[in-house]
Design a protein that fits this description.
This protein is 37% helix and 14% strand. The protein is an alpha+beta fold. Among the domains are: 42-76, no CATH class; 90-96 and 145-300; 430-487; 532-624. It has a ten-stranded antiparallel beta sheet. Helix 2 (44-53) crosses helix 4. One of its GO terms (cellular component) is mitochondrion. Residues 609-659 have a biased composition (Acidic residues).
Length: 659
C-alpha cells in the first residue's frame, strides 16, 4: 500500500505494489509511473495484527515482545490511534438495488453529459416532470455497477446516536480531540471476474461474484494503518487513517432479495457464506481510503496578515497538457442529494454556518468521493469514443486541497504514452502436475499388492486389510480421475492485453490542482470473426440447443396441462360433493319440516276430536235429564204447568250446559 507516499508534496503520484499471489488468469499489478526514489513505508498489516493479537499493545506497546520496529511504530501513536487499530467492524450486507444507481445517475446527469443517455423529448409533457421517461437510463438487472457507483452502497446501517458531533460515523474516527475529518485520498483496484471457472486452471478456487445490479453483496472493512504527521502534541498534528474495504457479490441475480434461492431453505456454501472473508485477488473491488483527522481549530488571535508575496499556490494549472476536459459548478442541491444517496451527514457538506465558524472554510466543501466519481465518469465517457472496449483496472488518487460549492471545477485527463505497462506472466500448464501424480499412483499400486501378499501370508487380519486397503483405493481412484482429465486438457492461448495509463486531475477556479490521480485501463476481448466451419458448428449447436429447449418446453407444458386437469378434476369432484351435501341437507330439512307440520296437524285434530267427544257427552246428559223430567210430569197428579210460561223458560235456560 502506497497511500502515504501520495500525501507527500515532494513526490510524484506512483502506483507501486509488491507482487501478490494470484490466480494465473489474472494480471499482476506493476509500476505505472516511475518514482524518483523508492520510499520505504511502514506496512500496516504487521502493526495492526500485533495490536489486535495483544491487548497490551493499546496501553503499553513497550512491554510487548514484538519486533523493535513494530514496537517503535506503536509508541509514536496516541492512545486513540492504538484503540482504533484494534477496533473490529461488522460485515456490511447490501442488496444492489437498481434504484440507488438510477438516482445517482439522475443526480450526476445535469453536471456530466453521459454519452449513453438519450436526452428527453421537450415536446412531451410528462417528460419534464417524470425523470423515468428518459430512454436507456434505468439499469438492467445483471449489469455491473460503473466505476465509482459503489460509493452509493455499503455505507453502513447507523442511527443518529452513532454519529459524531461533526456528523460523520463515529466508529471510523479515533475520538478524543480528533474531531475534524477530511478525505485525503485512496485507491481503487478492479479485479477481473471471469464468467465461469476454467477447467484445469482454477483448480476449484473460490471467487467472489461481480457487483451486478440485483445481487446481494458483502463489504468487509478493516483499519490497515495509522500514520501521524506534524509536530507531536501540537494543534497542527494530523492523524492519517488508512481503511481497506473488500467488496464482492453473493448468490444469484434476483429482482427481489427475499426470493433469492440462497434465502429459501437452501444450505449456504462456503462460497456464499458472508462470514468467509475472501482474499484481495478473489474479490471484484478492493477500495483503500485515507482519512485525515485533525484537532479543533484554535481560536484566531490578532495576527497580522502575511504579505501577498509570501503566499504560494498549491499547484499550477496544467490545463494546457490535457487532452479532454469538462467543467461544472456544484450547487448546494447537488451536495445535499449526494449526501442523501451516500447516507452521509457530515456537516461540512450541509451546514454552511458550521463549516465557516467551526471548520474555518469559506463555504460548503464538495465531497471527496463525489470528485472521484466525476473523474471516473470523465474517463468512462472518453473511453466510449475509442475503437476498443476498455475497463478500469485501477485508479489511485490524492486530494490536495478542498473544493467548494458554487465555484467552477475543471476536470482534465490525458494519456501518458511513455508509462510502463504490466508484464504478462505466462500461465502454468496444468499438465505439469501429471509426472508426480503418476509416481504417486505407482506407489499406491505397489502398496495394494504388498497388502494382498501380507493378507495371503496371514500377516494381516481381515479387519486390518480392509482398514489399509480402502483409503488407498479411494485415493488411487481420485488420482486416476484427475489424471484422465489432465491428459485430455488442451491449453488455451493467452490473449495479449493492451493497457493504457491516464492521468486525471481536478482544478478549482484559481487553477490550483485539488485532486490528482492515475488510472490504468485494459482492453476487453473482442468478438473474433468466425470461419464458415465455425459458423456451421455454431448453427448446429444452436439447433440442438433449441431442440432441447423445445423438448423441455413441451415437457413443461405437458406437465402443466396434467396439473391443470388434475386440479380441474379435483375442483369438479369437490363441487359435486358440495352439491350432494347441499341436496342431502335440503332433503333432511324438508323431511323435518314435513314431520313437524304433520305432528302439528295431528295434535290439532286430536284436540278437536276430544272437544267434540266432550260436547257429545254433555248433550247426551242434558237430553237424558229432559226425558226424565217429562216422565215425572206425566206421572204426576195431572198438574198443568203450561200456565206459568216464564218459569218454564227459566228452567230450560238453567238446565243448558255452559261452554
Amino acid at each position: 500500500m502506497v497511500l502515504p507516499s501520495l500525501l507527500r508534496q515532494t513526490r510524484r503520484l506512483v502506483l507501486n505494489t509488491p507482487p501478490r499471489p494470484a490466480l494465473p488468469s489474472r494480471s499482476h499489478p506493476v509500476l505505472l509511473r516511475a518514482s524518483l526514489a523508492r520510499v520505504w513505508r511502514w506496512t500496516s498489516t504487521a502493526s495492526a495484527a500485533a495490536a489486535k493479537e495483544s491487548p497490551a499493545a493499546v496501553e503499553d506497546p513497550a512491554d510487548l515482545s514484538l519486533d523493535p520496529e513494530i514496537s517503535e511504530h506503536l509508541k509514536t501513536l496516541p492512545v486513540e490511534a492504538r484503540q482504533l487499530l484494534v477496533r473490529d467492524y461488522p460485515v456490511i450486507q447490501e442488496y444492489l438495488a437498481p434504484t440507488q444507481s438510477h438516482l445517482l445517475t439522475l443526480t450526476l446527469q445535469p453536471y456530466l453529459k453521459f454519452s449513453d443517455i438519450a436526452a428527453p423529448n421537450p415536446q412531451e409533457k410528462r417528460t419534464l416532470h417524470n425523470p423515468f421517461t428518459i430512454k436507456n437510463i434505468l439499469p438492467v438487472y445483471g449489469q455491473t455497477l460503473p466505476p465509482g457507483f459503489h460509493l452509493a452502497y455499503f455505507n453502513g446501517y447507523t442511527q443518529e446516536s452513532d454519529l459524531s458531533a461533526d456528523g460523520y460515523i463515529s466508529s471510523q474516527g479515533p475520538g478524543g480531540d480528533w474531531t475534524r475529518r477530511m478525505w485525503a485520498g485512496g485507491k481503487l483496484t478492479f479485479n477481473s471476474m471471469p464468467d465461469k471457472r476454467r477447467k484445469g486452471y482454477d483448480r476449484g478456487a473460490r471467487r467472489g461474484r461481480p457487483l451486478d445490479i440485483g445481487r446481494r453483496a458483502i463489504c468487509h472493512e478493516t483499519i490497515e494503518d495509522i500514520q501521524m504527521k506534524g509536530e507531536p502534541g501540537s494543534d497542527n498534528e494530523m492523524m492519517f487513517v488508512y481503511i481497506k474495504r473488500k467488496l464482492w457479490g453473493l448468490g444469484y441475480i434476483v429482482k427481489e432479495p427475499t426470493k433469492s434461492p440462497k434465502l429459501i431453505g437452501e444450505v449456504t456454501t462456503s462460497e456464499d457464506d458472508p462470514t468467509v472473508i475472501l482474499p484481495d485477488e478473489e474479490v471484484p473491488l478492493v477500495e483503500q481510503r485515507c482519512l485525515v483527522y485533525m484537532k479543533p481549530k484554535p481560536v484566531e488571535k490578532d495576527v497580522p496578515p502575511m504579505p501577498k508575496n509570501n503566499i504560494t499556490t498549491a499547484s499550477k494549472s496544467r490545463a494546457d497538457k490535457a487532452e479532454f476536459s469538462h467543467n461544472l459548478t456544484p450547487t448546494p442541491t447537488l451536495l445535499f442529494r449526494y449526501s442523501a444517496l451516500t447516507f452521509n451527514a457530515h456537516k461540512i457538506h450541509l451546514d454552511p454556518t458550521y463549516t465557516k465558524q467551526n471548520e474555518g472554510h469559506k463555504d460548503l466543501v464538495v465531497h471527496g468521493p463525489l470528485v472521484l466519481t466525476f473523474l471516473l465518469e470523465l474517463l468512462r465517457n472518453h473511453t466510449l469514443g475509442l475503437e476498443k472496449e476498455w475497463k478500469v483496472n485501477s485508479f489511485e488518487y490524492r486530494n490536495i486541497t478542498p473544493l467548494f460549492v458554487n465555484e467552477p471545477i475543471n476536470i482534465y485527463g490525458r494519456l501518458i504514452p511513455d508509462a510502463p505497462v504490466p508484464e504478462r506472466i505466462p500461465e502454468e500448464d496444468p499438465r505439469e502436475r501429471l509426472p508426480p501424480m503418476y509416481d504417486e499412483m505407482d506407489a499406491l499400486r505397489k502398496l495394494l499388492k504388498q497388502l494382498t501378499v501380507q493378507k495371503t501370508a496371514g500377516e494381516l487380519t481381515e479387519e486390518e486389510y480392509d482398514a489399509k486397503r480402502k483409503p488407498a483405493r479411494k485415493k488411487l481412484r481420485a488420482l486416476k480421475s484427475e489424471s484422465d482429465k489432465l491428459e485430455k486438457f488442451h491449453p488455451v492461448e493467452q490473449r495479449e492485453i493492451e493497457y493504457k495509463v491516464y492521468e486525471l486531475w481536478a482544478e478549482n477556479d484559481k487553477g490550483q490542482i485539488a485532486v490528482r490521480g492515475t488510472a490504468l485501463i485494459e482492453d476487453l476481448p473482442q468478438k473474433a470473426e468466425m470461419t464458415p466451419e465455425q459458423q456451421w458448428k455454431r448453427y448446429q449447436a444452436e439447433l440442438a440447443r433449441n431442440k432441447r429447449l423445445l423438448q423441455k418446453q413441451a415437457l413443461r407444458s405437458h406437465k402443466e396441462m396434467i396439473r391443470e386437469k388434475k386440479k380441474e378434476r379435483k375442483s369438479k369432484l369437490r363441487y359435486a360433493q358440495m352439491e350432494r351435501e347441499r341436496v342431502r341437507r335440503q332433503q333432511k330439512e324438508d323431511e323435518w319440516k314435513s314431520r313437524r307440520d304433520g305432528a302439528v296437524a295431528a295434535g290439532a285434530n286430536a284436540l278437536n276430536e276430544n272437544e267434540d267427544e266432550e260436547n257429545d257427552e254433555s248433550w247426551e246428559v242434558i237430553e237424558g235429564e229432559e226425558d226424565f223430567s217429562d216422565d215425572e210430569d206425566l206421572s204426576d197428579d195431572g198438574e198443568d204447568f203450561s200456565d206459568d210460561e216464564d218459569s218454564k223458560y227459566d228452567d230450560d235456560e238453567d238446565s243448558k250446559p255452559k261452554k
